[in-house]
Amino acid sequence: MPELPEVECVRRTLEPAVLGRAIVAVQINYAKAVLPDARAFADGLGGKSITATARHGKLLILGLDQGAFMTIHLRMTGQVIVADQAPQADHIHARIDLDDGQSLFYRDMRKFGRLNYCPDAQALQNGPLANMGPDALELEAEAFATLVGARGGKLKNVLLDQRVLAGVGNIYADESLHRAGLSPLADPRALSADDLDRLHRALRQTLLEALEQGGSSVRNFMDAHGRAGTFQHSHRVYRRTGQPCPVCGQPVERIVVAGRGTHFCPACQEKC
Question: What is the model's pTM?
Fold first, then answer.
């Protein structure tokens, strides 16, 4: 599933192609992919210009004139592609034609992703942004410690909770916990101030390094120009079960935490 670095890579590669462009036509091939419904989505976008691009957590946000917004949540296999002709691929659920002859294509093999038209900021806040915590890259260390350290349960579950911290998923939770030397099973309330500060720094460093390398293309992720990321080659523990930990050499183990495959080093990440 694309996480914060992957969505930010899409935003950065998408922005130069769409900023200032007017939407001249909208074609919906899979009605369930758009909200509130296909007609409202197409009518809302039609004739508007794209004035800004933004991201919050895993949510891609396109600002439109007249105070409107379009959001894209890629979920598991969503892709945003900008091209002057349709990609030679199936599962193209939406096409948005721009006034320079290029089009924005939305492709999604698993059909879990969603595009949403919001007529104003209130609709954006009450809809796609509802129940989202602060963005994982924008949260300062003190606020991070307050939010995460007050939660009960397992530490990895807290990092994955988008109501607490927006943008972190399975890959970057595992990678950040390993860098911080913390167990995914630790109780956040038992962590020291140093532990929480170390985790904040590890999370931020991991996300920024992933951004520099174009994200992780574990399954089918690509940016808006069809380029895969390379950060998967730098993963320390994620999907490296049985391989040596890059710090101590002990085999990486895999357990299931809240239904999610979780990878960690039992020596470097002893339970607190």
Answer: 0.96
